[in-house]
Write a structure and sequence with these properties.
The structure is a homodimer of 216-residue chains.
Chain A lengths: L13 H16 L7 H14 L4 H4 E3 L3 H11 L4 E4 L2 H6 L2 H6 L3 E3 L5 H10 L3 H12 L4 E4 L3 H12 L7 E4 L7 H10 L5 E4 L6 H13 L2
Parallel strand pairs in A: 2-3, 2-4, 4-5, 5-6
Antiparallel strand pairs in A: 1-6
Helix pairs in contact in A: 1-2, 2-11, 7-8, 8-9, 9-10
Amino acid sequence: MQNSQILSHVITDPNAIENQSLQIIHAKISGKYSGQRENLDIIKRVIHATADFDFLENLSFTENVIFNTREILRAGKNHAIVTDTEMLKSGINKSIAQKFGIEIYCDSSSPEIKLEAQERKITRAIVNIEHAAEKFPNAIYAIGNAPTALIRLCELVQEKAANPALIIGVPVGFVNVIEAKNFLETLANIPKIISRGNKGGSTVACAIVNAILYGL
Amino acid sequence: MQNSQILSHVITDPNAIENQSLQIIHAKISGKYSGQRENLDIIKRVIHATADFDFLENLSFTENVIFNTREILRAGKNHAIVTDTEMLKSGINKSIAQKFGIEIYCDSSSPEIKLEAQERKITRAIVNIEHAAEKFPNAIYAIGNAPTALIRLCELVQEKAANPALIIGVPVGFVNVIEAKNFLETLANIPKIISRGNKGGSTVACAIVNAILYGL
């Protein structure tokens, strides 16, 4: 099929679109962020994915978290990224993950987890995180949707059943969300990225994970 | 595994969490929306997925679009929902879609589409939409990410190569996004839901599709 008349008047090259987007965001937030430069790369990607400039204020990072996480992933020792939802898993850049031997893990749609969640009357996301912690206690955990999964993960850290390389705690919503993020804040010695307040979501978590991967 | 100490103090029943969330949102926006009641159900789900109350103002709906779309889907004639990304496809409620015989279609990660996009130096999302329009000219189209896909879809409608039952036009970002939404606005006789301005995204598109499905 021929490229169309109207599309010939707009940029259609994917790399050019992305570069122009990031330049526009850069111009809008230039000089407004005082944290580490690597954090700003992540913030720009989150704003790129949401068009929501609140994330310039909302996102908090432990010291050197981006640099250290990339060093760990570059070292390439069978690392895993655990997600709370299939949707988040689906959005993560597979080709970079494969290149560095990183497994992307989420099992929350399996019949076994559905059944266990129904029997225990809890969210599938909690059961998924418990299973993940057994398999990958040192993984990167990205929680974009389910605050109960984040609470359970924090408990597992307290119980020394998990010791994640990074927790991305950006669940969204109005029930349990602030509580979950506050709980995560209390965990000493765990590298973390948190979206303070009610905002967050799968696209936010996905943008953070991919921004880390793009910098490898 | 036993349910944990801290989780026993918060609501962990998924239905109870969802109900409480929607009640909180309802209380915050009560009396602030003057459109059709069915639209409000959709808006609440989008705010639930983003914690962003801007969507109370941003979302526009053609008349009776929710009622009519549900009637079409209930009639059950091999309908399809076409998405611009695998991530959006992944988030759509499969059990309801299956129950009503609705196919969820996105092929943007296939090797064929990657190759064609590279050769034509355009986004994979455009190629995916072109292929989808040939297969499913009357489908529901949900575009949460790629404005170029929405522009191409609008062109195909103008060329009478597609006649969607509904276009959900909620791409996010700073390049081509406003242009794509303005183009969609000009199409007469096409049922549509649009997020005005730069905001939108896969989670927004997903919340809209699922809100429609939950009401079937």
